[in-house]
Amino acid sequence: MLTAVDHVQLAAPPGSEGDLRAYYAGVLGMTEIPKPPLLAARGGCWFQAGSVQLHLGIEEDFRPARKAHPGLRVRGIEAYAARLAERGAPVTWDDHLPGHRRFYSEDPVGNRLEFLEPTG
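Request: output the structure for the sequence above.
Response:
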């Protein structure tokens, strides 16, 4: 029986850790969490906000996820979108999900991210 999503892993190209840290910690406001030593040797980085964990793993033949994406629930979506835009991240609003406000963005390596908040 499934009980929860433990984490979502996205791929990133070799050498992109600095850009990932700037975006996931600096722009999104997540906290970097340490990787176990054996996994840290592979590169990449892990981030957490509350119970949400995103793992960024290094992939030699990297191609960004343009359709597949994590859906991240936020509180105060208007202010959060403004935070991203002020820090140079793209914000594309989408009003096609009934009962939600949502927008899409991209991390610095081109992975798609969805941010949503229920409206009622």
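The chain has a mean pLDDT of 96.
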